[in-house]
Amino acid sequence: MNKLQPANHQHCIACGDPQLNTYSMGVTFSLNQLKEAWATVKLGDRYQGYSGVLHGGVISTLLDDAMVNRLFFEGVEAMTAELKVRFVRPIPVSQTLRLSAQLVGERRGIYSLTASLCVDQLIYAKAQAKFIASGPR
Predict the structure, then answer these.
(1) What's the rounded Cα separation, in Å, for the pair 59 and 137?
(2) Cα angle: 62, vertex 110, 104; to 5 degrees
(3) What is the rounded CA–CA span in Å between residue 27 and residue 72?
(4) CA torsion angle for 65, 68, 72, 74 (degrees, to 10)?
């Protein structure tokens, strides 16, 4: 299954084209055999909140982006309607982060997903979200 990232998403702060948005983190997602969207990323000091710790807003952004990218693999354009993030432990900057997202279900154009952010296979943050279809399917 190919990812169909919409043209209007190419400026995204997380997964956008760094040539179009120099502030983009340049995260690139793949789909594994379990139908999870996943990516790895390593972010430096510019993304910290407290000294040496990744900012909570950046963590939320990464989890949200993992989930919307999972929908892109289904050919679905959607916007976040609800996002619940659980911060399990502080995430040090300059670590290799692994993001993954799963599609849980869909009902009447509302998609439910979950995501996690891990370092060395240990969960540091996780999220649940609902997305509303916003484009063609």
Answers:
(1) 28
(2) 65
(3) 14
(4) 140
Per CATH, the number for 7-133 is 3.10.129.10
Quick one: three-class SS letters along the chain? Answer: CCCCCCHHHCCCCCCCCCCCCCCCCCCCCEECCCCCEEEEEECCHHHECCCCEECHHHHHHHHHHHHHHHHHCCCCCEEEEEEEEEECCCCECCCEEEEEEEEEEEECCEEEEEEEEEECCEEEEEEEEEEEECCCC
pTM of model > 0.85 = yes
Q: What is the pLDDT of residues 13-51, one digit of tens each?
A: 899 888 888 888 899 999 999 999 999 999 999 999 999
CB 52 within 8 A of CB 92: yes
Could you state, in order of their start, the residue ranges of all structural domains in the chain?
A: 7-133
